[in-house]
TrEMBL record:
It comes from Pseudooceanicola sediminis. GO terms for cellular component: cytoplasm. It comes from the Bacteria. Residues 5-326 form the FAD dependent oxidoreductase domain. Keywords: Oxidoreductase. GO terms for molecular function: oxidoreductase activity. The lineage of its organism: Bacteria, Pseudomonadati, Pseudomonadota, Alphaproteobacteria, Rhodobacterales. This is FAD-binding oxidoreductase. Coiled coil: none annotated.
Length: 344
């Protein structure tokens, strides 16, 4: 049996996406995860692919823009091969503006978005209509951006896994390292690196979210009251999520009750929507808060793709590309702020 060119450890969004990019370049690839596909934070339910504010531009924001613009083609390719819908849709986002100060900031960002997003998407201040899936706005005005998109995290991971298998990749719960090894092991991986190095490389942050029975599949997502509200294509709306550095256990609790209440206050249409699922999981936050990518210092042939935290699904298409560049072709296009060696 032929040896693998690449072993990917971790079957979350980073691991699966990196494996997909490698397979598309002809590499024999195996994904190994003892807990299965999307078992960690990538098996969540929110899926808000939302951009950073278009100002104070830096490598992280430019990288994210590239990735968000790549997403439609990336997920269409996955769906075409797998025959499974990942729940992707570039449906945009609405945010209420609280007062005159918020309105002035938002209007200033209209111009910077036009320049920085280069016509690929809009950031505009619009008048609230009071109709449809639209948040309550004290000023009567909203921000609408057309760059934000949604994905169904669990479905997306399942679709990626099916596409990988269809292209000949292996997905196993246990297997030896063969070829180059990409470590995409999420929160547990960051904690293990911290133990090995004796310094804080990254931490696990608990997140909680809920799924409501409300059918608005083509509606924009909403960010209001400190929560993301994401209508999915399957007739549900996801709301979340918390960021808890201090926690005991992985059960959902009063923190999620507060998120549900805030979402209903921000979007009154959800007042009577039934809660059909509650979710809690651990998300990987690297010390830098940016994705952690590149060569594993001191371990030849080993690479790291971790630390997605709240932006993992949005960053995944571009991360997959640059990791395949590095692992298969030796081309390093990783932004300075993302470099793994800086955290060791």
């Amino acid at each position: 049996m032929a040896r693998m060119d690449v072993t990917v450890r971790g079957a979350g969004i980073f691991g699966l996406s990196c494996a997909w990019a490698c397979v598309q370049r002809g590499a024999r690839t195996r994904i190994v995860d003892p807990f299965g596909v999307g078992a960690g934070a990538s098996g969540g339910i929110v899926g808000a692919l939302a951009p950073h504010v278009p100002e104070n531009w830096n490598d992280k924001k430019a990288f994210q823009l590239d990735s968000l613009l790549m997403a439609e083609r990336f997920w269409a390719g996955v769906e075409a091969v797998s025959g499974m819908a990942p729940g992707y849709g570039r449906t945009g986002r609405l945010q209420p503006l609280a007062d005159d100060h918020a309105v002035a900031l938002a209007r200033g960002r209209e111009a910077t978005a036009a320049r920085l997003w280069q016509g690929h998407a809009d950031w505009q201040v619009i008048a609230a209509t009071g109709e449809g899936v639209e948040p309550t706005s004290p000023s009567g005005l909203l921000i609408r951006d057309t760059l934000s998109a949604r994905i169904h995290p669990g479905q997306a991971c399942a679709a990626l896994a099916a596409a990988l298998r269809a292209r000949g990749a292996e997905i196993a719960t246990e297997a030896p390292d063969e070829g180059a090894v990409i470590w995409a092991t999420g929160a547990a991986g960051l904690e293990e690196m911290s133990r090995q190095t004796g310094q804080m490389v990254g931490v696990a942050v608990k997140g909680q979210a809920a799924l409501l029975d409300f059918d608005a599949p083509g509606a924009p997502q909403v960010f209001a009251g400190g929560v993301h509200i994401v209508p999915h294509a399957d007739g549900t709306v996801a709301i979340g999520s918390t960021s808890e550095r201090s926690f005991e256990g992985l059960a959902t609790d009063a923190h999620l009750d507060a998120v549900i209440a805030a979402a209903r206050a921000a979007l009154p249409l959800l007042a009577d929507a039934r809660v059909i699922a509650r979710w809690a999981g651990l998300r990987p936050r690297a010390r830098s808060r940016a994705p952690m990518l590149g060569q594993w210092p001191g371990r030849q042939g080993h690479f790291i793709a971790n630390g997605g935290f709240k932006i993992g699904f949005g960053m995944a298409p571009k991360i997959a590309e640059v990791m395949a560049d590095l692992v298969l072709e030796g081309r390093d296009a990783i932004p300075e702020g993302f470099r793994a060696e800086a955290l060791f």
